[in-house]
Amino acid sequence: MGLSRSVAVATSCLLALGVLAACSSSASKTASNAAAQSTPAGTVTSADLQTVLSYVGGKTGKADPSLAPVTIGFVNQQGGVVGYPEQESAADAAVSFINAHLDGVDGHPVKLDKCFIQAEEDAPTCASQFLQDKTLYIANMGVDIYGNATLYNLIGGKFPIIVTAAVTAADATTKDVYAMDGGSLANLNGIAENAQQRGYKKLAVISSNNPAAKYLLSSIVLPDLKKRGITTNTVYISDTATTPDYVTALQASGASSADAIELVPAAVGGCVSMYDAMKQVALVKPVITVTQCAGDPMPTVTGGGPEDWTITSLADLPLVPSPQSDAYNDIMAAYGESSQANVSFAPKGFGDMLTITKFAKAIGFANLSAAAFQTQITNFRGPAWMVPGPILCGGNPVQSGLCGGTSANSEYTNGKWIALPPYTDVTLARK
Amino acid sequence: VANSASSKTDEPPAPVSPGGDRGTSIPARVRPDRSLLVRRGLYVVAGLLLVGWIVSNKSALSVTLLGAGTGALIAALALGIVVTYRGSGVVNVATGALAMYASYVFNSLNTNGDLLVGMWQIHLGGPLGLAPSIVITVVMTGLLGGVLYVVVFAPLQDASPVAKLVASVGVLLVLESAISLTYGSSSIQVTATLVNGSVNFPGNVEVPKDEILLTVVLIVIVVLLWLVNRFTRLGLVTRAAAEDERRLTLIGRSPRLVSGGNWVFSGMLVGLFASLTAPISGTVDPTTTTLLVVPALAAALIGGFSSLGLAALGGFLIGLAQGLIQFLGTQSWFPTAGGAPIPGVVETMPLVLVAAALLFRKIKAGGRGSIGSVRLPFAPESRTPGRKVLIGAAIAIGALLLLNSTWRFAGINTLVGITICLSLVILVGFVGQVSLAQMALAGFSGFTVAELSAEWGIGFPFAPLLGALAATVIGLLFAIPALRVRGIQLAVVTFAAGLAVQTLVFTNPLWSVGGGGANVPSPTIFGWNFGPTAKSGLAGGTIPNPVFGIFCVLVVAALAYFTARLRSSPWGRRMLAVRANERAAAAVGISVARTKLVAFGLSAFVAGLAGALSGYRFGSVSPDYFDVFASLSFLAFAYMGGISSVSGAVVGGFLVTNGLVFTALDDWFGLPLNYAPLVGGLGLIATVVLNPNGIAGSFRDMRLNLSRKRLDTSRRRERAET
């Protein structure tokens, strides 16, 4: 064999090693972020500290890095073409703040055992990584759409998992998996309640055609709207739809003759496209929609916020001033990335990390166990951080993993974001 | 026949369809085909009725016309695909990715004044206007097209169509990951405006001006292309290249220059439309435009990969029909599933149009001519398959018992990957039928296993066997078009079919919980649970249960032995004969149709078993895991390993996502997560260009060369002694 051929073979074999990646995935093991923190970039006020302390409990002070850490599993979809890195930023900021100012857990620093998912095959690797960690008694699932059922199935309830955004059926229905909010169910019911309270009789509904949105809308929300005497004309569009698709959807859903538009996008891109589409066809109608439409870059695109759009969300918007949202924004600026503060479910992820720490502090370092966390979760009555309404895990008759039943409501009006009264669905939460 | 089929053939071209066709064309009928005329008549009547209904219904007409913008972009991508195919014989599945890249180049220039070159941004001083941004984008994408041809596709001039296809998959991965790394995966706002306002058509139907502008540009481009193609020397040489590159050399023209020129032109065309569409879309992101390649491929096939006008018309109509289907979904009579309009109707449209095109017009069965003879991958015959399989199985079982949890998972992923690669070896490697729907078949089996277990109480071992049989039935349905088209056209048909199955079946609430997937219970036999989460007392009771891994090893060993025996059996020889030259195979009494059907059936059965194993591995099946791009990925893995041998399938299995090689890279070398797709795409291209026989073939070549060297050395020694 000639040299060039040998080199060619060797080169291609080496390069081939990378291919695995090509077609996706990787679950990545990482150690703690707690120990190595850079100097805070922003300022956290004493009011912020007091606000967080009153939620988390315990005392102030710096955790002792020489003590054994309290490990929290953190799994999130990121690193691939579709990812939610803002969740990691929010979780890191929360943990750093807890270790820097809230004494960790009895002086022990909090540590994240991270694992990232890009494809279904990563879920077993993450499950295995967590199960091998004998100091891990609880985990947080950020935002993930691949392999959720596989992960939960393999973990098999050996420790509880708190989900930041219950985006798949498995998130909301698996035993020992909990979301400290009302999930999409409460969110979408909030939309229905809003429509009724405002006296709308005819809605043009434009929704993402992803299975989760479609299922909730067609099986729960649309029948509910019908019961309330509201007629709907529903169009489902692709998650990747752009402005021309939304123009078509507006036309197909009869938006021009409807009282209002109900928008259920998969991501903020859908909100931007809808906003542009309405401008393009000069359509002025009230829009009732979900959290994503208040996230970046919507405020930039719309010059602060879209007028006459009502947002129903899992958690209070960081754009609406309140002691908790102010503390969140300040801590993200100081310990995380402020550019990520208003991206999708980052505030909720930050809150979940505080809630887990709150449970750990209540249990005490010496008594930490999966069963103790389970008890804390079951006994928790809320409200959770930045999430309005009571909490009762296991109380939701439709989706047992959803612990709340309340949606936060906000709107942008006269140049500022304001909070509207939250809406609690008592039939869902059975409080 | 078998010998000639399994070697790198250099036989003279067949008289009717020389070069790349390898004598696969079927002589044209002299008499007019009456049934074809009847079919055409029926389609025309149906089409006129549909148009009449749309025009009479204002809402339907409005939404249909609003699809013009999307239709124009799909049409432009279809034109790009046809131009590159005619010019170089490459079906470029990265055309959508090229358009996506162009939209970022445009937006970067227009918003920030940054020129995007590869992954680097060169600041030009300030944001550029609309016109200069478009012009620079067109030039840049033209250059990119040229570079892609010179670096990737020119060296593959004599490679098989599947090799070229796999290389374009590599290009797709590189472009998509380059943009994700530079700009992130979220959508970015486009601030440019093409033209404001809308035009009011009779009947109060409003269509935005920018969509009309895009349609006009499309029409102008198609007319110009037709004029260039028909009346200029460039058009003449391109047509000559598309017919047979050797004729081009006879008139003193360089086929490579023509091919390269067409790549540049295709890049410019795609860049122009991407620039014009970005302001209309309002946002750019790495996936939306990339995925438009699916309908664009369907449109290209409607044009038979040769007619620019029909391809553009097909693409444009697909865009219009998408809007219309959206409107129809709001009608009370529209079929529903789980209370919502039945999923997958829009996604099935490419398949319907392709099927209609196949019935409507006679699409040329073979591929385009090429200057050299096509190199077919070597399909070696193993003399001792039983021994090799036994040794391999013993090593695998030992490893499963000794490895830790992470590596055991990697081992199981590898075993499932080998199974899918084996199904591709039978179909693509032995018979040369390019299928891009293998994961749809695997998924169909996986979802069947879930359904049988949940609804019918049928568990292991009957559920996986029935699942594999169900996949076989679907595989045989996929084989029907294979009796009519082949090569890259068959690939497009199966691509469209895979997408249809994925959306119609896998996301259908009737089959999957909330449309998001379905649970697969652990396999049990006589009450003994040996699934991945069951406790077995082995490996310290950690997951995954090694017994499940051993079960996977046994299945893979049996399938590997079967595939190796198939290669050396009379059926295997028939398959290789069909792969090499269908007409020659028919001449020696081989039933080409039956051989193809058997291959499709066997391949689908093996893919079905892989789907069942995958369901048991995860405890669930999900639509995303079995999507069309997963089929492309597995074809790429199988090709890299060696598409026509069992050993190639084994190497391919090692390379799959989270397989053993990946885990080693992650564990030992800490391959940066974000750079993995980029490195993988580059690796894929390098392997296709440098190793047409795949990695396993290269090892085989190395071994043969070593033994030859040893023989030469001993002969020289003998001579010296003499």
Report the span from N to C terminus of chain A: 77 Å
Give the percentage of residues in beta strands of chain A: 15-25%
Q: Most extensive chain contact?
A: A-B, 95 and 110 residues
Query: Mind describing the biggest β-sheet of chain B?
Result: 2 strands, antiparallel
Oligomer: heterodimer
Q: Provide the low-confidence segments of chain B as ranges.
A: 1-30, 368-372
Folded structure, characterized:
- The complex is a heterodimer of chains A (431) and B (722).
- Chain A contains 16 helices and 12 strands.
- The N terminus of chain A is likely disordered.
- Chain A is an alpha/beta fold and 431 residues long.
- In chain A, the strands form 2 sheets. Chain A has a 7-stranded mixed sheet with strand order 7-6-8-9-10-11-12, sandwiched between helices.
- Helix content of chain A is 40%, strand content 17%.
- Chain A starts with a helix and ends with a helix.
- In chain B, helix 4 packs parallel to helix 8, helix 5 runs parallel beside helix 7 and helix 17 runs antiparallel to helix 24.
- In chain B, strand 10 and strand 11 form a beta hairpin.
- Chain B is mostly helical and 722 residues long.
- In chain B, the strands form 6 sheets. A two-stranded antiparallel ribbon of chain B has the order 1-2. A two-stranded antiparallel ribbon of chain B has the order 3-6.
- Chains A and B meet through helix 1, helix 2, helix 5, helix 6 and helix 9 of A and helix 3, helix 7, helix 14, strand 8 and helix 17 of B.
